[in-house]
Write a structure and sequence with these properties.
Blueprint: E1 5-11, H1 15-26, E2 33-40, H2 46-53, E3 58-62, H3 67-76, E4 83-87, E5 91-93, H4 99-106, E6 111-120, E7 123-127, E8 135-137, E9 143-145, E10 148-149, E11 152-153, E12 164-165, E13 173-177, H5 178-184, H6 196-206, E14 210-221, H7 232-249, H8 252-275, H9 279-294, H10 296-300, H11 321-326
Parallel strand pairs: 1-2, 1-4, 2-3, 6-14
Antiparallel strand pairs: 4-13, 5-14, 6-7, 6-13, 8-9, 10-11, 12-14
Helix pairs in contact: 6-7, 7-8, 7-9, 8-9
Length: about 325
C-alpha cells in the first residue's frame, strides 16, 4: 500500500472556500488518504456545513484562533499519517496532485518537505504569489519565488518544469514527512502567520534535509483568503518574522551582519510607505522592528546548535533581489 497521507486544511471562517474547493480535494487520486479539516475557532457555520455535506471528512477543533502556525501545531498533534499536507482552504487541486510529490519524496529519505507548482486560481496560466515554482532567499534573506518577483507574476510557459531543490516550500500546499515534522517540532507558534514555513524549511536544511519543488503536480491558489495583500497587520508580520527567522537560523556572526543590512533595507520601505501616504504601513514596519528587538532574548533561546553557513544552502541567491528588481530592473527569475 502507498504511504499514508493526511491532507489537513486549517479553517477559520472559510465556509465559502470549503464549499468551492473541498469537493475537489475529496476526489484526489490517492489510495491511502484521509482528509482533515482543523477548525481554528471559527465563528461562522463552517463546522456544521462540513458535518452536513462532507461526512467522510474528519473534523478536529481548536478552542480559539491560534494563527496558522499554532493552529496547525495543535491540529497535527492529533493526526497520524506518514505524510502531512498542509493545504490552504482557498486552493483548488487537480485530481493527480498528490502522487507525483509523494513519489518524489519517497525516492530520497533526505527529502523532508516539498511543494507542487502553484498557479493563480483566477488566471490559471499565471504563477501565484505564495510559492509559484519554489521559494528562494536572497543574500539578506529576502524571500521570493521562481515565477514571481515582487508584484511581477510570470505566465507559465513550462519554463520551470524541472524538479529541483529549493530553499522553502509554500505553506499554501506544503508536503512534509510526519517524522521530520515531529523531529523539528512543527511550526514556530510565536510567528503566528507568514514566513513560518520558511523558518521550518530553514531549520530542516540546517539539519541537512532537503526541500524540493515538484513540477509534475499542479494546484491553483486564490491567495489572500485570510489576510489581504494590502493589510498593515500582514506587513507587520512579514517585517517582524523575517528578522526573527534570520536570528534563529543564521550562524551568529553572519546573523549580526545580515540583520543589520536587512533593517537598513527595511528603512527604505519605511520611507516609501510614508511618502506614499500610507502611515499605517509605516507604523507596521516600525512595530515589526520594535517587537523583533524586544524579543531578541526570547528568540535567542530558539537557536539550534546546528547552523550551516548560509551560502551553502541550495536556494540562496548570492545577490540582493531588491537591488536586481528595483535598480537593475530584472523582472523575471530566469534573468537573475
Amino acid at each position: 500500500m502507498s504511504p499514508s497521507v493526511a491532507v489537513v486544511i486549517l479553517n477559520w471562517n472559510g465556509k465559502s472556500f470549503l464549499k468551492q474547493f473541498l469537493p475537489g480535494v475529496l476526489l484526489s487520486e490517492y489510495d491511502n488518504l484521509q482528509v482533515v479539516v482543523g477548525d481554528n475557532g471559527s465563528t461562522d457555520d463552517s463546522v456544521n456545513f462540513i458535518e452536513l455535506n462532507f461526512p467522510t471528512v474528519k473534523i478536529l477543533k481548536n478552542d480559539t484562533n491560534y494563527g496558522f502556525a499554532g493552529g496547525y501545531n495543535k491540529i497535527l498533534e492529533r493526526v497520524e499519517a506518514d505524510y502531512f499536507i498542509l493545504l490552504n482552504s482557498d486552493v483548488e487541486v487537480t485530481p493527480n496532485w498528490i502522487k507525483p510529490v509523494i513519489y518524489l519524496m519517497q525516492s530520497d529519505d533526505k527529502i523532508a518537505a516539498a511543494q507542487p507548482k502553484i498557479k493563480w486560481q483566477l488566471n490559471k496560466n499565471q504563477f501565484e504569489y505564495a510559492g509559484a515554482a519554489g521559494g528562494f532567499l536572497d543574500i539578506y534573506a529576502y524571500p521570493f519565488c521562481r515565477g514571481r518577483l515582487f508584484n511581477v507574476y510570470e505566465v507559465d510557459t513550462d519554463q520551470y518544469n524541472e524538479t529541483e531543490e529549493v530553499f522553502w516550500a509554500s505553506g499554501a500546499a506544503f508536503f512534509i514527512k510526519s517524522k521530520y515534522w515531529k523531529e523539528i517540532g512543527g511550526l514556530d507558534a510565536d510567528l503566528f502567520a507568514h514566513m513560518e514555513e520558511i523558518d521550518l524549511c530553514w531549520r530542516l536544511k540546517n539539519l541537512d534535509y532537503k526541500v524540493v519543488y515538484c513540477s509534475d503536480s499542479e494546484v491553483y491558489h486564490v491567495g489572500g483568503g485570510t489576510l489581504q495583500t494590502e493589510n498593515p497587520f500582514k506587513t507587520y508580520l512579514n517585517f517582524r518574522n523575517n528578522l526573527i527567522i534570520m536570528q534563529k537560523n543564521l550562524p551568529a556572526g553572519d546573523a549580526i551582519l545580515r540583520i543589520t543590512v536587512r533593517m537598513l533595507i527595511d528603512f527604505i520601505a519605511w520611507w516609501h510607505f510614508l511618502l506614499s501616504g500610507k502611515p499605517k504601513f509605516t507604523l507596521a514596519v516600525s512595530k515589526g522592528h520594535w517587537h523583533f528587538i524586544k524579543d531578541l532574548a526570547k528568540t535567542a533561546k530558539k537557536r539550534n546548535k546546528y547552523q550551516k553557513p548560509y551560502s551553502m544552502h541550495k536556494g540562496v541567491y548570492k545577490n540582493s533581489v531588491v537591488w536586481a528588481f528595483f535598480i537593475k530592473k530584472v523582472k523575471f527569475f530566469s534573468n537573475l
